[in-house]
Amino acid sequence: MTSPSSTSASPSANAYRYPFATSPDIIRSNQKDAFSTSTLTTDLSAILRRLYGQRFTQTHTSELSTFSELLYLGLTTFIGNRTLGEEYCDIIQVQAEDGRQPAIGRRSGYILGVVVLPYILTKALPRIRAKARLKLEARLHERAKTPQTGMSMEKYILDNLGIITSPSPVYALTLAIFYYTGSYYHLSKRVFGLRYIFTKRLPEGEQRVGYEVLGVLLVMQMILQGWMHVRETLSSMKAEALDDEKGRLALKGGDQQMFGGDTLQEKKTVEGFVLKSRIELTTNTPDLDDEPRFDLKDRTTMGWIMGKQLRKWKSQNVLSAGRLFYLNMCYPSEDEASD
Fold first, then answer.
1. What is the pLDDT of residue 73?
2. For 333, which of 110, 179, 298, 306 could close a Cys bridge (C-beta 3.0–4.6 Å)?
3. Tens-digit pLDDT profile for residues 178-230
4. DSSP reduced 3-state for 195
5. Taking the mean position of all CA atoms in its chain, how far away is CA 249?
6. Rounded distance, CA 244 to CA 215, Å?
7. Under a CB-based contact definition with an 8 Å cutoff, are residues 85 and 29 in contact?
8. pLDDT tens-digit readout, 296-329
């Protein structure tokens, strides 16, 4: 039989649940593990340098770093022990749903996801980008034979291929969620449901502080970067549409399209954007009615324009000072001609 004292003490012992570790504890633990891994990498590099020479170590830097991380986590997490960083910060890795020690399958999956998968992506992504770039350039070359307006989807993907195929946005989002919630520092931990508990007993009333503000700031930064990317993309679309308009006008050719007619008053719609004519965009000249703005039959209008020949000009666009000077020189007024 158990004594009354033991039965009364057991509920209080079982009632206490260790809290989950906060983001500062997890970050300190990760920094300690990174320092330990770096030290191990330096020692292994010194050994390989003596055995195979300096060129070998410099050529296989990424492989050596990956092997050091595998060796470090294999001697700690894989066999169920705590890492040096976890011991330093008094935290233990557990399963998120029941708080038990993670099974070997989860521990193995976590190690592969945090060490091996980034190494594979680092080696495979440049080749994937190169092949995708060749295919996109070939498609754009074929589409260039037919008249196109605006920016195509292939052109957008080609210009932003590095961003689209980069895992950095996913890592940044994972880090922002971690800062705000205090859980799952690595994406691999979230996939396999691994969290940390804080094993040091805290006095009553003590509160743990997190990095929620950093999480909000990271989200705001990503929103700002996304907005700037959208704005730059729209500006590029307008610029390409303007180039298409210039090319269309150049194919028609002639001063008729340059200085007169209704060609400059045409409006072109490209993917929802109404583009003004070439002169309107370059000179910020508003649209005019069919009637001329200035009628030179009235001698009080632009009286500084002398000569009957010059005053016969009727245009919806205001002539530049250089062109007027040229016309004055070629067609002098009657008084100037008599002199």
1. 95
2. 306
3. 998 888 999 999 999 999 999 887 777 777 778 888 889 999 999 999 999 88
4. strand
5. 36
6. 44
7. yes
8. 677 777 767 666 666 665 444 444 444 555 555 5
More confident residue, 274 or 287: 287
CB-CB contact of 113 with 191 (8 Å):
yes
- Of 243 and 232, more confident: 232
Distance CA 339, CA 332 (A): 10
User: For the chain, how many residues are written?
Assistant: 339
Residue 242 to residue 258: CA distance in whole angstroms: 15
Task: Provide the mean pLDDT of the chain.
Answer: 76
Q: Collapse the DSSP code of 91 into the 3-class scheme (helix H, G, I; strand E, B; otherwise coil) and give the result.
A: strand
DSSP structure string for 28-58: HHHHHHHHHHHHHHHHHHHHHHHHH-HHHHH
Nearest C-alpha neighbor of 181 from the set 20, 16, 17 = 20
Check pLDDT > 70 for residue 61: yes
| pLDDT tops 70 at residue 279 | no
Residue scoring higher pLDDT (140 or 198): 198
Confidence of residue 86 (pLDDT cuts 50, 70, 90): very high
**Packing angle, helices 117-143 and 61-74, rounded to 10:** 140
How many angstroms separate the CA atoms of 262 and 248, rounded?
14
Task: Give the separation between CA 67 and CA 265, rounded to whole angstroms.
Answer: 67
Give the integer Cα–Cα distance in Å for 257 and 249: 7
Burial class of residue 141, CB neighbours in 10 A (0-12, 13-18, 19+): exposed
Buried b / exposed e across 18-47, counting CB within 10 Å, b at 16+? bebbbbebbbebbebbeebbeebbeebbee
Q: Is the pTM of this model over 0.90?
A: no
Most distant pair of Cα atoms in the chain: their distance: 136
- Calculate the dihedral angle through the C-alpha atoms of 288, 289, 291, 296, rounding to the nearest 10 degrees: -20
Give CA torsion, residues 224, 229, 231, 233, to 10 deg.
Answer: -170
Q: Are 114 and 188 in contact (CB under 8 A)?
A: yes
d(CA 256, CA 249): 10
Q: Which two tokens stand for residue 231?
A: 């704005």
